[in-house]
């Protein structure tokens, strides 16, 4: 019941006969995969936040001018969003773990997961976009409005920002996958 | 069957007995609400794109300097993303309409909707974030890196950008709601 299930789609359309009553189980689920993905979400969020926060760099051009994530509202939003998603990741990892032990909670939990995953996805994707948009300006600048690029000077800072945004995009993709497997698991429990 | 259903959650946990076989129907669904939301997604995407694209403004300071959305990669990404989501909105509005007429397609369609909604949500939320981050820089500038604000000069341009991003955020929220009602509808078909 807690198996990783048959990845082939067709198998899910033949639920165990007679399992339609009781705990609402039957049908495939991917809770072990779910567990791994949720832990990945937590890890990705943690890495994104740590890499972003540790990117401080001071350049002497000619006066000392530091670059810090908190100088940009976009990066502050990014850190806040991925702190939330990291916390969410670790909490739902535990929830997923408990569901593997108590299978009769699973269907209800899957619905809760989709609800929250969709909300967190909206937050993380927009945060990755916001930080990515500003990071791209740092990398390329914009001649039309005289915003000069800064990544030729603040190289370490920009490497941190870029890596952090990449990990953030990865975290958002993990959330999309989580929604997909939860939806598929619930769908497999609907009698045909 | 195509009714808007009882909005109270508890009612969904008592599906019609004996409906567990056959077409997979039974349980609540919100296809009329779904239809309206999908049309709203289309309308919001259309408005976001049109408002963004029509924001061109030329200021003479002292030479003529135009501001156009295509000067910023962030705004180009925004227009591309919301063109896709507008197209997706109108296609799924038609799919939702056909599901109201042919109820036996519904459960499968709900799963497809969640899959695609999650993907499009990732795209639109990140696009709204990207454009929003750059628009905020235009509004406030960033003294730390000498990026001066431009919205005191390009007022009409910035009004268009700001409105467009706001409508884009609204469209992303509609997508979250769509995932929620689809997930809830599928869940209500799982026998308890």
UniProtKB/TrEMBL annotation, chains A, B:
Residues 32-173 form the Casparian strip membrane protein domain. Keywords: Cell membrane, Membrane, Transmembrane, Transmembrane helix. The chain crosses the membrane at residues 35-54, 74-97, 109-139, 159-183. Coiled coil: none annotated. Residues 1-21 are annotated as: Disordered. The keyword Cell membrane applies. It is a multi-pass membrane protein. It is found in: Cell membrane. Its main location: membrane. The keyword Cell wall biogenesis/degradation does not apply. It holds the Pfam family CASP_dom. GO terms for cellular component: plasma membrane. Belongs to the Casparian strip membrane proteins (CASP) family. NCBIfam families: A_tha_TIGR01569. Homodimer and heterodimers. PANTHER family: CASP-LIKE PROTEIN 1U1. This is CASP-like protein. It comes from Cicer arietinum (Chickpea). The lineage of its organism: Eukaryota, Viridiplantae, Streptophyta, Embryophyta, Tracheophyta.
């Amino acid at each position: 019941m807690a198996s990783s299930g048959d990845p082939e789609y067709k198998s899910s359309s033949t639920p165990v006969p007679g399992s339609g009553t009781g705990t609402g189980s039957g049908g495939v689920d991917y809770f072990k995969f779910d567990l791994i993905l949720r832990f990945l979400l937590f890890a990705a969020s943690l890495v994104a936040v740590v890499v972003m926060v540790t990117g401080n760099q001071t350049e002497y051009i000619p006066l000392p001018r530091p670059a810090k994530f908190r100088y940009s509202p976009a990066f502050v939003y990014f850190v806040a969003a991925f702190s939330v998603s990291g916390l969410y990741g670790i909490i739902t990892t535990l929830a997923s773990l408990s569901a593997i032990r108590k299978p009769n909670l699973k269907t209800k939990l899957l619905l809760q997961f989709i609800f929250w995953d969709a909300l967190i996805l909206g937050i993380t994707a927009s945060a990755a976009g916001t930080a990515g948009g500003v990071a791209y300006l740092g990398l390329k600048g914009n001649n039309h409005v005289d915003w000069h690029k800064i990544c030729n000077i603040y190289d370490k800072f920009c490497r941190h920002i870029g890596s952090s945004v990449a990990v953030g995009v990865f975290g958002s993709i993990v959330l999309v996958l989580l929604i997909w497997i939860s939806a598929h698991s619930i769908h497999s429990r609907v009698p045909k």
